[in-house]
Amino acid sequence: MSRPARLNLLHSAMGLAAAGVLLAGAGGARLLHRIAPASQQTPSSPLLLAPMIGVIEPCILAETALPEAVEGLRATCTGPEGSAAALVESTLKSLQPAARPGLPVELGYTLPVPLLKLFRQEADGRWRIDGEMVNRLVRTLRDTPRPAILYLFSTHFSAHSPIEEALAADPANMGQTRDGPMGQDDYYDTKVFNWTFATTHNALTERRAEAARAVLDAACKLDTKERSKIRGITLLGELHHLFPNFQAGMGFDGLYRVTDYGPASVAGFREYLRAAFKRIDQFNRVVGADYASFDEVMPPSRDIRTEPLRRFTEHIDGFAHGTLPISGWAYVPKSKTGQPPRIHVYRNGEPIGETAVHWGRQDVLAAKPEFGDANTGWRMDLDFRQLPAGLHRLDVFLETAPGKLTHLGQRDIAIMDRQQTTPRLLPQRPLPAATPDATVQAHIDFPQPASSYYFNPLVPLWHAFRGQQVIDYLRYFDGVVEKSCLSDVPRYTHQIIPFTNPSWDANKFAIEGSLRPLKGIRLGVSLYGEPTYGQSYFDWLSGRGASRYGITEFHPLKPMDAAEVQRVMEAHARHGAEFLSFFLEPRWNGHLVPRGHNIFSFDPDNALFASDQLYRSTQEALAPSRQ
Q1: pLDDT digit string (tens) for 463-511?
Q2: What share of the chain is helix, strand, coil (3-state, %, to 5)?
Q3: Helix 280-287 vs helix 263-277: angle between axes, to the nearest 10 degrees?
Q4: With bands split at pLDDT 50, 70 and 90, how would you rate the model's confidence at 14?
Q5: Helix (H) or strand (E) holding 205
Q6: SS3 letters for 135-181?
Q7: How wide is the angle at C-alpha 218 spanned by C-alphas 212 and 224, nearest 5°?
């Protein structure tokens, strides 16, 4: 829910090129063929519109100085019966000017609960739950006459809680790369704590669970009617593996360093392999190795290009799992067909796939504002596991109109064998006819010219295990909720979806498994840019097997009128969305309440990313019908 978490979507690769345009390709979408349209359904109930209101700092924590215009707010927040309920109502009243909505939604809110912020250090040095803070949170649920999403969050972004420094001093709480425990990092103006989730047997997990139980126990003291207002619970927030230089390390450039290589993770990986293969000889046949036992296996951690290997299976980089991105951006002034232009890729003169130009590239728009559109990105992943070793030639064409191809460029890449044999150019077939088009602007980000690629069969097993660690940690906290009186309340993840960022290496995050259906946990995703209003998210969703989901964060990153806002929300409701949340700044009697404002908040005074227009359009969509 933090501002830095959202900046990931815009600046993950901005530092990789001075112009901010010629960035390294990445992402996770495998669009080698067209995907059938996602199924739609008739919503069984109205979509719950649940904006995440910034009530924590000014009201629950009561740590923000308030100007005279909103000074009356303090009395409602503090005291024996204080809560943020009045602030929630005052904020939502400004959004919904009338009682009867024109959009088929129910207006509620998301209550964020910063788990590590609930601790205070006593005089004896011990950390204890701040009971009064917990009570203010729960009284907010009690006193607000609206449905709520309860967001139990604790992520790698700092909550600015003193206990974080104490927890970070213990290496057992920190994620490890092959080089050892990671320290703290910075993401622009916010601190990042590289917490581990490779084990639940550490102080970090104990504190998170303790805080979650305190909130759940207090909520369970509410009567049944008040508890029934809790429509959903989201777990932890963005949970994924980490890497050094979080601000600029999400792509493919630089040293490949990921978590988690701690002792618990290494032991867990061996057990994972033992359970999957049963016998070491079977495992050896699959990965092409000669291990004497599973206890000899170490996670891959070295780069064959720069480091000596004892075994080939030690090799890892951003491509060793067996695919490489072919990606870039392209701008065509106008599409005559009304459809996005398409990219066609040829290998050694043979067509191997095509994909649409439609991914959001805010970096391109920032450098080329005259385009007026961020959806200029494209990406296709090439599976090279079965390709013959040698030098392969890739050619990229842009189809601007049916049958009209423009050649964007060529890349020679080397598919390497384990012996690092000098690659030779493979036989080539003639390329299709192409016509230059001076109106096209484009660039191929990946692959880099004369780049080499090695497939290590152990790497996809390592990434699958890392993905399982994400799932297991989410399930642990799902179990905490399951043991409370709120066990019948739907639980959701609160995850990012890396494929929407075509400059990201999705394997660094190892988040894919947690985006698939999990028993007892529904999908919760944060959507920014084209996936909020385009077809790409629905196409992706159709392959997940999930029928119901929540949108934990929502921002189109462009202006929309009321009709388009309504169309987008109705489309998500038809595809199974049960709630939709966006950031909303708190307002007291119309006055903005001071806090660390989120640059992605829908707010009449926030012009960034057209957030002021989106606020007014949402307000209009919620207004009563004038028919």
Answers
A1: 999 999 999 999 999 999 999 999 999 999 999 998 888 889 999 999 9
A2: 30, 25, 45
A3: 100
A4: very low
A5: helix 203-219
A6: HHHHHHHHHCCCCEEEEEECCCECCCCHHHHHHHCCHHHECEECCEE
A7: 120
